[in-house]
Design a protein that fits this description.
The chain is α/β, with parallel strands linked by helices. 37% of the residues lie in helices and 14% in strands. It contains 13 helices and 15 strands. The strands form four sheets. The protein has a seven-stranded mixed beta sheet, sandwiched between helices. The protein is globular. It starts with 6 loop residues before the first helix and ends with a helix. The chain binds D-malate. The site of D-malate (MLT) has 5 residues, from loops.
């Protein structure tokens, strides 16, 4: 008799965004005439940059001929892409990252979910609340989160509340912690940490042998100067942090799939008897065993985002969504909402009108306005009473949605 991993029974039956998709398709079935505006999941609406499409086609053509055909690639990614990443995302910005510290993957979702493989079951994990549900769900699947409580929290996770009272800046945990997930610019609140605020976390991690799992999937949307794009801008971070990056939101790769993870060679975990062990080596071992590399054509498409043309096209995408975020922010303020985020991030975090729950307000917006959002409670208890608006839609839909919300 094959026994299942019981932890899968403990987690909510559906993943947050699958639940939303289900509710939206039910609504569509009941109201086929409804013109639905999707501002829920952060899926992009603009196509890939031309430079990436050209590179995809060229790479696909190479697959026709024996002399240029590629079979298995390096599990860590081709050096052409790893070199382009290091040069453009780090070296040119004065940040020290080496090529063998970069692991190319099929996206930050997989990497932030899979990273738990290399950490012991007994590690104490801290998670900002609200947060991207993958961090919680994957720790729950591994049994590291303990048991779910009636309110949906997990007994062994340490929740770092991010709310209006603390300006969405998580406080250092009082409990002993081994791993901390930080996502900045933040999904879902769209808020950020300044260099000084992130330094507090890096110093804390260095003093307490904590590893920070830093999700920087939205760094391209930063507009303000004092907001770090990479945790490695902070002194000492190479000793304590893994950073996750994505081409999804930056260059429209949500369907094409490419991301990467940086694991500095200074970063150590500890064996049972306290010996330091290279996390870079463990992650490399994990990837070589469980992953056969991102496809060659996709890596060429990602590489093309760093060409001169590619950079211009990527900038145009980011500018477009940033302008959407501005329209949403201004539209919501005009409609009387209290809002956060949207300045350095493609998400705007809006307080539901008085007394309404996140899901209640989500349903109201869907049923009455045909607007899909993401209920804040889906990201954690501290998200209750909020909904998240995504700026990744078309301009027309973004403007129309704000019109529908006008008082
Ligand atoms: C989100 O909407 O939070 C993201 O698009 C989900 C993801 O990147 O997987």
């Amino acid at each position: 008799m094959a026994q299942i991993n019981e932890n899968f029974i403990k987690i909510p039956a559906t993943y947050l965004f699958s639940e939303i998709a289900k509710r939206v398709s039910q609504h569509k079935e009941q109201h086929p005439e409804a013109s639905i505006i999707r501002m829920g999941i952060g899926d992009v609406s603009l196509p890939l940059p031309d430079a990436s499409v050209d590179a995809l086609i060229k790479a696909a053509e190479e697959q026709r001929s024996e002399s240029t055909f590629r079979g298995y690639g390096p599990e860590q990614g081709y050096s052409f892409l790893r070199e382009a990443i290091v040069e453009n995302d780090f070296t040119s910005k004065g940040i020290h990252v080496e090529i063998d510290e970069v692991f190319v993957s099929d996206g930050a979702k997989s990497d932030t979910g899979n990273i738990g493989d290399i950490f012991d079951f007994n590690n104490r994990v801290a998670i900002t609340d609200p947060s991207y549900p993958v961090y919680v769900d994957t720790n729950a699947m591994a049994g590291r989160a303990g048991e779910p409580t009636k309110t949906g929290e997990w007994t062994n996770l340490i929740y770092l509340a991010c709310n209006e009272a603390n300006g969405f800046v998580p406080e250092l945990p009082i409990e002993v912690v081994d791993l901390v997930y930080l996502c900045y610019p933040n999904n879902p609140t769209g808020t950020t940490l300044t260099k000084e605020q992130l330094t507090v976390w890096v110093d804390y991690a260095r003093e307490n042998q904590v590893i920070i799992l830093f999700d920087a999937a939205y760094e391209a949307f930063i507009t303000e100067d004092n907001v770090p794009h990479s945790i490695y801008e902070i002194e000492g971070a190479r000793e304590v942090a893994i950073e996750f990056r994505s081409f999804s939101k930056t260059a429209g790769f949500t369907g094409t799939r490419c991301g990467y993870t940086v694991v500095p060679k200074e970063l150590m975990g500890y064996s049972e008897n306290g010996d330091p062990v290279s996390i870079n080596k463990l992650w490399n071992r994990r990837q070589c065993t469980k992953f056969n590399g991102t496809s060659y054509v996709v890596q060429r498409a990602a590489e093309a985002t760093y060409s001169q043309e590619g950079k211009k096209q990527v900038k145009a995408l980011i500018d477009f969504y940033t302008e959407n975020a501005r329209i949403i922010r201004e539209g919501l303020i005009k409609a009387g909402y209290t809002i956060y985020g949207g300045v350095n991030a493609p998400y705007v975090w809006a307080k539901a009108p008085k007394g309404m729950t996140s899901w209640g307000y989500f349903d109201y917006l869907l049923n009455e306005k045909n607007i899909v959002t993401t209920p804040g409670a889906g990201f954690g208890a501290s998200g209750e009473g909020y909904v998240r608006f995504s700026a990744f839609g078309s301009r027309e839909n973004t403007i129309e949605a704000m019109k529908r919300l006008e008082i």
